[in-house]
Amino acid sequence: MSLSRVEILLTWCNENGIQIDPRIQVRESRNHQELADRTESYSSRGCGISVYSLEDFIDSSCSLVRIPKAAILSTKSCFLSQDITSVPYGHTAHLALALAVYSEILRGQYSKWFGYLQSVPRETVDIAIFWGAKDVIDFKSCVCSSRGDTVLSQSAIGDHAGNVGAACSNTEFSECGPCLQYLDGKRARMWLSCTEAEKELDGLMDEIRQYYVSVVEPTLHAAFGRLRKTEAEHNVNVVSGGGIPRLDECSNELNSAEPSLPGFCHAYSLVSSRAFLVDAYHGLAMVPIADA
Hints:
The chain is mainly α. The protein has three domains: about 20-65, no CATH class; about 70-120 and about 195-285, no CATH class; about 130-190, no CATH class. Helix content is about 40%, strand content about 10%. It has helices at about 5-15, 35-40, 90-105, 115, 155-160, 175-190, 195-235, 245-250, 255, 260-275; strands at about 20, 25-30, 45-55, 65, 275, 285. A two-stranded antiparallel ribbon has the order 1-4. The chain has a two-stranded antiparallel ribbon with strand order 2-3. A two-stranded antiparallel ribbon has the order 5-6. Strand 5 (about 275) and strand 6 (about 285) form a beta hairpin. The two termini are about 25 Å apart.
């Protein structure tokens, strides 16, 4: 029997020295069954990893989790630590950490943080910056025949009454996850039309696209290229702290998970919804368990 997401996470925590108070429990749950039913096509969107108290009351002065800094994921501790320019704060720090997280996601089970990263949301977190932005949605899981070339009806684009028409060109699948996500964001973005918030979000989205093209893609391709070269030269299987995959497996690593703007935006949304400012060295970082 395969392990659950929580079991994998807790095993990883134990291996990395994260101590969790026995008065609390980390578990996978759905907020409401009704929400789960309505979001069935969104895969695991209705699910989440949460922390629950096993006691009626826990004094606020207690330390419930102790997390070694060696277990946090930052631009200083990631696979690409020597390739990412460290920035202490601001949107550039956010982008840099998103690249760090994305690089580890792409490494899959070879990543030191695999046990942690497999527990985070698998879809892009619904943050306002991505509302109505079609190029940040991964339409590969779209069940309509047109996949990424989604044909939107006029009502889906501009019905101010809020009535959304079918997003897919194939109306049989008018409730596929990616299309619903796009249409929902499109409607939400309408509320920000002609506001300062809209200008701010547009500017940030432009920065994300530019950073992806100018930094993310070339950095990832260069880094994975070095892995392949190193493995080919030594012709050995080296596994240490996340490790270097065997040549036959590494050669397909990028082919099976090719970098993409939607993939990077997924990592960006995780950073946006979960990151902490840790200290002067790590700066903005992902802190396992604390972010649950």
